[in-house]
Write a structure and sequence with these properties.
The chain has 13 helices and 16 strands. By secondary structure, the chain is an alpha/beta fold. Bound molecules: pyridoxal-5'-phosphate.
């Protein structure tokens, strides 16, 4: 008889995992609040909210109840030609929360699909008007997902190298989060590209480029780029898949800027991290250009599970909890600020940055800052041994805890970081 670990090795192909190099995955048998409980009795504080999705803690009773109540009423129903109250209520509530003039919500399944939908909306917006605008601008170090469209607009490199010939061309501009970037040159570069008049859209992760290394930048830079978008009729797409729902200290990172986007991509925290869901919101202007008696102007996009009623019930419950989460978010932010003072005493810590609940820094090991920095595995396993789930991006360590985390748990995380880094 095989045990679970052996069966896992036999039957499952895990994401972002090289089975010959990586350790076998830890078998989690229960998750509650900020903690994951393993089969072998180990416990882990989830310092990265399980890939940035979990907001209010695992197995939150309010979300659990909402899902179970919804299941009494209905499960999945086709979302073309049919609708349901939970989908309608959530769209209405979400639109109230969103910055700018968002008017419509298009549902999908995850972050990558929310981005695919946004990019397709932007391109078809121009196509429907017979205007030839097809160029898309994105930042270096961007990450927008793993489907072909979202890979195309993401930083080219090891993640998408095997498919490079199949990805569409994008104009990449310097990342404002990279220390070497001189913003005035980057803004000039952006102006020059948009002035050509063929730019359909600019897609960006507002204020924090997540998987690209938790690179952070200031609202003012983005506001200048968004201004240029306005003047040149370029559709601004905010990918808030990671930054949405309170992560940056405001409900949405886009609230830090004066200029608002035309399209917003959402996922991850949207259901409190309990069930999969993607949503792409757009302005009335975007939507109006799809309305026609001509069926060829339809937005031909949809997934079998679009508008899943259980995910949407979870999303409604999570949004209600979010209204009362600002104190917790502030609590995490203030703790991070205090911890930064300690981090500054370590010689091997560089580029400390934080916004809202996210804290990141580079660990200097005399190698380049990169996803493949050899320090990564060493750090990851040391944290795991200390009962803290932190997944460094190469030599970049970041913390992004769920909002329910308490003082004790935060201190355990901070102590683990100090301990590991002091003894490297
Ligand atoms: C900014 C951003 N966009 C899109 C995605 C893709 O989301 P998903 O993994 O749900 O497809 C991610 C995932 O990390 C992300 O951080």
């Amino acid at each position: 008889m095989l045990n679970y670990s052996e069966k896992d090795q036999k039957y499952i192909w895990h994401p972002f995992t090289q089975s010959l190099v990586d350790q076998p995955p830890v078998n989690i048998v229960r998750a509650k609040d900020s903690k994951l409980y393993a089969e072998n009795g180990q416990e882990f504080i989830d310092a990265i909210s399980s890939w940035w999705v979990n907001l209010h803690g695992h197995a939150h009773p309010v979300i659990k109840k909402a899902i179970s109540d919804q299941m009494e009423i209905m499960d999945q129903i086709i979302f073309a030609g049919f609708t349901h109250p939970t989908a309608i209520d959530f769209a209405e509530e979400l639109l109230e929360f969103l910055p700018g003039n968002m008017a419509k919500v298009f549902y999908s399944d995850n972050g990558s699909t929310s981005v695919e939908v946004a990019v397709k909306m932007a391109l078809q917006y121009w196509h429907n008007q017979n205007i030839k605008k097809q160029t898309i601008i994105a930042f270096h170090h961007s990450y927008h997902g793993d489907t072909f469209g979202s890979m195309s607009i993401s930083q080219r490199g090891a993640f998408n190298d095997p498919f490079s010939d199949k990805l569409f061309d994008v104009e990449f501009i310097s990342s404002p989060g990279e220390l070497s970037t001189e913003t005035k040159f980057m803004i000039a570069e952006f102006s020059k590209i948009t002035a050509k008049g063929n730019v359909a859209a600019f897609i960006y992760e507002p204020l924090i480029q997540g998987a690209g290394g938790m690179l952070m930048y200031e609202p003012d830079v983005l506001d200048q780029l968004l201004n240029i978008c306005r003047s040149n009729e370029v559709i601004a797409i905010a990918d808030e898949v990671m930054t949405g729902f309170g992560r940056t200290g405001k409900f949405f990172a886009s609230e830090y800027m004066k200029n608002t986007p035309d399209i917003i991509c959402l996922s991850k925290g949207i259901t409190g991290g309990i069930l999969p869901l993607g949503a792409t919101a757009c302005t009335k202007n975007i939507y109006e250009n799809f309305k026609s008696n001509d069926r060829s102007k339809t937005f031909f996009h949809g997934h079998s599970y679009t508008g899943n009623s259980l995910s949407l019930a979870a999303a409604r419950a999570s949004l209600t909890l979010l209204r009362d989460s600002m104190t917790n978010i502030k609590f995490i932010e203030e703790n991070h600020k205090r911890f930064i003072l300690k981090l500054k005493t370590l010689k091997n810590v560089q580029n400390i940055r934080s916004r809202g609940t996210i804290l990141a820094f580079d660990v200097d090991n005399h190698q380049q800052t990169s996803y493949f920095n050899s320090l990564r595995d060493n750090l990851y396993h040391q944290f795991i041994d200390k009962g803290v789930l932190i997944r460094p991006l190469g030599n970049v360590i970041y913390l992004m805890p769920p909002y329910c985390i308490d003082q004790n748990e935060l201190d355990t995380i901070y102590n683990a970081v100090m301990d590991v880094l002091s003894n490297l």
